[in-house]
Specification:
about 70 residues, mainly alpha, 3 helices
Length: about 70
């Protein structure tokens, strides 16, 4: 995905490519929303999860037991 803000024509082109043609009055709102989502995901990509195990390895019952002891 390109960096920077997504323009309304880009948003319309990507939506059409995905089979979701947008009315012209929605291009700006969709572009702004997509730009926001892209900026949030960019921050998440910078996080270092290092030794964090995958979610299926998490056991809530064990966490509760360990915290109580």
């Amino acid at each position: 995905m390109p960096s920077g803000d997504i323009t309304p024509p880009e948003a319309a082109r990507w939506a059409a490519r995905g089979g979701l043609p947008l009315p012209a009055d929605r291009h700006g709102a969709v572009a702004a929303t997509a730009s926001h989502i892209h900026s949030v995901v960019a921050v998440l990509r910078e996080l270092d999860f290092g030794d964090t195990p995958p979610a299926p390895a998490y056991r809530a019952a064990q966490e509760a037991h360990d915290a109580a002891v």
